[in-house]
Amino acid sequence: MNAVDTNVLVYAHDPRDPVKQDKAVALIASLSDGVLLWQVACEYIAAIRKLTAFGLSQQQAYSDLQKLRNLWLPISPTWAAMDHAEKLMMTGNLSFWDALVIGACAESGIKTFYSEDFDSSTTALTGVAIVNPFR
Q1: Which of 31-35, 56-60, 99-103 has the lowest mean pLDDT?
Q2: In order of start, what are the domains of the chain with their CATH numbers?
Q3: 124 pLDDT band (50/70/90 cuts)?
Q4: Under the phi-then-psi rule, with left for phi > 0, alpha for psi from -120 to 50, and beta for the rest, what region is 22?
Q5: Backbone angles phi, psi at 131, to 5 degrees
Q6: How far apart are CA 106 and CA 101, in angstroms?
Q7: In what order do the strands lie in the sheet with 73-75?
């Protein structure tokens, strides 16, 4: 299973960087075994509010998530992911929200997490491969 971070969803709909937009759209379309993390879905809705000046709307964001919910397995938060996040915060020097999303990946059996926000040390701590799709 694979998952994407909020930044990938945002770039897929943000016209300000066409190169990243094309890469994000291609990645999302290629993930037949995608997982939609609850936290990522919530962060996406919050992030789109800041991009209304660029033609993005809350209604469109909810529509985007509806499409993904029909294609990808939804993963809701668990106490095990919270426990995993606590350990990651202590050993990996991650923020709470970053630790929680990576903890959810680890607890859900996600093999690859696509994000531009993490480095390779996170992979060593969790076994979840972190891939920056924009490099």
Answers
A1: 56-60
A2: 2-131 (3.40.50.1010)
A3: low
A4: alpha
A5: -120, 130
A6: 9
A7: 73-75, 34-37, 2-4, 112-114, 129-131
